[in-house]
Amino acid sequence: MLRQASFFLVLAVSGSVISAGPYAPPAGESNSTAIYMDDPNFTAWATGVTVQRGYVKIDEPELGYVSYGNDANALGMADGDLYGVVSLGDGGDATVTFANPIANGPGYDFAVFENAFDDTFLELAFVEVSSDGINFFGFDSVSLTQTDTQVGGFGMLETTDLHNFAGKYRQGYGTPFDLEELADVNVLLDANGITHVRIIDAVGCIQDEYARYDSLGNKINAPWPTPFATGGFDLDAVGVIHEKTLLADFNGDGVVNCFDYSIFAAAYMSEPEDENWNQNCDISEPADDIIDMWDFTVFARQWLEGGQS
Q1: pLDDT tens digits, 111-124
Q2: Most-buried pick from 62, 231, 240, 253 (CB within 10 A)?
Q3: In what side-by-side order are the strands of the sheet with 125-130?
Q4: Contacts for 65 with CB less than 8 Å, ≥ 6 apart
């Protein structure tokens, strides 16, 4: 949530010392996984976005939905600007797309940027990915923040208590995600061809009726309520580290060859309702829900690119 300068002092004097947990520390510290927005490893940024705004305050729906920022603020390169974001509100989400799919390369594959003004006032979001825009699968997230007392709207979190949450790092620094973690999660996900990334506000309320949970079943306790037009997770950008430019590299080995041809041939002339349908082979521009000569044309154009057969 955005804050005016007058709030900074309130946060500073009202916080207490928080003990460190086992996960990566804040940006700039040793062993931090934070990636700065100017890092040369970023090869691309989100080019499309759909936003579903969440409530200003989830337990008072009559207050309506958050409204700060344009959807387009989530596109392009992160700028580290406190105000150049789109606010999602309690439970809201944003789904971003890319010019080319994200590939599962060595190490981290993409990063999500929020606008936290320091290392302790952190608003969190779950991250899910899809290779077809229909079936989404989430990264296992962990929150070790205590759940006995609600973290207030101006409360503090410890970065080292958080794992696989977007918003873990301050503005200008992205939280990275490794697609290898989801490589075998489900046959409906091609971890080497991610077309959609969904960021879902984690709310942060520990009331049973509204609580969200991490992968261990812990309630997510984060700054709440944030009853402003700027409430909830504030999305700045999603940066791509490993981009899949060879659309016909179906098996992800970096070269379009006979192994990819066998995959393509098995899906040839199929449509989504067919048993042999393979979404990854629908590589014509635009995709048209049938594997045909238009897709084969793209395949032939990329034949043997990336290496030798």
Answers
A1: 999 999 999 999 99
A2: 231
A3: 48-52, 93-102, 194-201, 125-130, 137-138
A4: 53, 54, 55, 56, 89, 92
